[in-house]
C-alpha cells in the first residue's frame, strides 16, 4: 500500500468570478486510485461563500482525477460541489451543462503575469515600449527573463498530467501570454481549463508572481485586454451545417446577446469596445476571418459548405468555462436542426 496525497480541488462561491480552492487528503491505495475509488469529501462552506455558519457542510464529489506531476504520489482530484442531499450546490455551474460528447470546445486563455502591482516587465514608473513586437516575440527585450520559464514549466505540467493543451504564445501586451485547451465534450474542455488554471496559480507561487485574469487590467489605455475566445463545434455543425442553419444559429446568438454577455466574464464592457480586435459588447456581429466581429467564422467554414467550428471572441479571461459552454450549448439547443 502507498499513501497518496489527494488534492481535492473545487470552485468556491465568490461572484462574479469563482476562485479555485484545494485541500489534501492522505489515503492508502495499492496503486494510483481510479475515480470510483475516490470518496466524496466535505468542507466548510461558510469559509467559501457556499453556506451559512449554522449549517456549513458542503460535499465534494470527485469528477476527474489526474496524476499530480509536481508531487510524489500525488493526485489532482477535480470536484463538483454538492449539497448534503446529493443535489448540485447552486454555485455548481458544471451541473448546468447540457453535455454531449459530440460538442468540441477550444478555449484560448489570455492572462497577464503581474509582479509588484504591474505587468511583469513594466518599469516601476511609466511604460515600456508600446505594443507591437511583444506578440509571439522572442528575446529579453520582448518577453523578459522569467516569463517564458514559467510558461514552459506550466506547459510541461499540463502535458504530464494529461490535459489536452494545444499551444502557447506571447500576447500583444508586455507580460501577457496565452495558452489553448481543447476537449471533445464541453465538460472535458472546461474541466481541463480549470485544472490548467490551477496548475498555473500553484506554479507561480514559487516565483512570487501573480496571474492577473482581469480582462482589462490596464484600463482605458492602448494596452490590450485579455480574452478567452471560445471555439466550438457540434457534431451537426461539423457534419451537416449549411448556410441556412448557420444563419439561424447566428440569429439566435444575436437574440440571446444579454444572456451570453452575462456569463462571459465581468467588466467586459471595458474590453469589448470595438478597439484592439474586439467588437462592441452590445452589438452582435459575425464575419468571415473577421477579428473585429463577435463571432469569427474561419475561412474554411463557408468553403466547406458552412461546416466546421466557430469562434466566439467575446468571453473574457476571467470567464468561467462551465458557464460559457453552458450558455453556448443552450443557445445552440434552441435552434432546430434539419
Ligand atoms: P487564434 O489565435 O487564431 O484565434 P488559436 O490557435 O489560438 O487561434 O486557437 C484556436 C482554437 O480552436 C484551438 O484551441 C483549437 O483547439 C480550436 N479548434 C480547432 N478546431 C476546432 C473544432 N472543430 N471545434 C472546436 N474547437 C476547435
Ligand atoms: Mn479542520
Ligand atoms: Mn489564439
Ligand atoms: Mn490571443
Ligand atoms: Mn482566437
Automatic annotation (TrEMBL):
It is found in: Cytoplasm. Keywords: ATP-binding, Cytoplasm, Ligase, Nitrogen fixation, Nucleotide-binding. GO terms for biological process: glutamine biosynthetic process. Pfam families: Gln-synt_C, Gln-synt_N. It comes from the Bacteria. InterPro entries: Gln_synt_N, Gln_synt_N_sf, Gln_synth/guanido_kin_cat_dom, Gln_synth_cat_dom, Gln_synth_gly_rich_site, Gln_synth_N_conserv_site, Glutamine_Synthetase. It is an enzyme of class 6 (ligase). Its EC number is 6.3.1.2. Belongs to the glutamine synthetase family. Catalyzes the ATP-dependent biosynthesis of glutamine from glutamate and ammonia. Homooctamer and homotetramer. This is Glutamine synthetase. The lineage of its organism: Bacteria, Pseudomonadati, Pseudomonadota, Alphaproteobacteria, Hyphomicrobiales.
Amino acid at each position: 500500500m502507498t499513501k497518496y496525497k489527494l488534492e481535492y480541488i473545487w470552485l468556491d462561491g465568490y461572484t462574479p468570478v469563482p476562485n479555485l480552492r484545494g485541500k489534501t487528503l492522505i489515503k492508502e491505495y495499492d496503486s494510483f486510485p481510479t475515480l470510483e475509488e475516490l470518496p466524496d469529501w466535505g468542507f466548510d462552506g461558510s469559509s467559501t461563500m457556499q453556506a451559512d455558519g449554522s449549517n456549513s457542510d458542503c460535499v465534494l464529489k470527485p469528477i476527474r482525477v489526474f496524476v499530480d506531476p509536481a508531487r510524489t504520489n500525488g493526485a489532482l482530484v477535480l470536484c463538483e460541489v454538492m449539497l448534503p442531499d446529493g443535489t448540485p450546490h447552486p454555485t455548481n455551474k458544471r451541473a448546468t451543462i447540457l453535455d454531449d460528447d459530440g460538442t468540441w470546445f477550444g478555449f484560448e486563455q489570455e492572462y497577464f503575469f503581474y509582479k509588484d502591482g504591474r505587468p511583469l516587465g513594466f518599469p516601476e514608473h511609466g511604460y515600456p515600449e508600446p505594443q507591437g513586437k511583444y506578440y509571439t516575440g522572442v528575446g529579453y527585450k520582448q518577453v523578459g527573463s522569467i516569463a517564458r520559464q514559467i510558461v514552459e514549466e506550466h506547459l510541461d505540467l499540463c502535458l504530464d498530467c494529461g490535459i489536452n493543451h494545444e499551444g502557447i504564445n506571447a500576447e500583444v501586451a508586455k507580460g501577457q501570454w496565452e495558452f489553448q485547451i481543447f476537449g471533445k465534450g464541453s465538460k472535458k474542455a472546461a474541466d481541463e481549463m480549470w485544472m490548467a488554471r490551477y496548475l498555473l496559480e500553484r506554479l507561480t507561487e514559487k516565483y512570487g508572481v501573480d496571474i492577473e485574469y482581469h480582462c482589462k487590467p490596464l484600463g482605458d489605455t492602448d494596452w490590450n485586454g485579455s480574452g478567452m475566445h471560445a471555439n466550438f463545434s457540434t457534431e451537426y455543425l461539423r457534419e451537416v451545417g449549411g448556410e441556412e442553419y448557420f444563419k439561424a444559429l447566428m440569429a439566435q446568438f444575436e437574440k440571446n446577446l444579454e444572456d451570453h454577455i452575462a456569463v462571459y466574464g465581468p467588466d467586459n464592457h471595458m474590453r469589448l469596445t470595438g478597439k484592439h480586435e474586439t467588437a462592441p459588447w452590445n452589438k452582435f456581429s459575425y464575419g468571415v476571418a473577421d477579428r473585429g466581429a463577435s463571432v469569427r467564422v474561419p475561412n474554411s467554414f463557408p468553403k466547406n459548405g458552412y461546416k466546421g467550428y466557430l469562434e466566439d471572441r467575446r468571453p473574457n479571461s476571467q470567464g468561467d468555462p462551465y458557464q460559457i459552454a453552458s450558455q453556448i450549448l443552450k443557445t445552440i439547443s434552441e435552434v432546430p436542426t434539419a
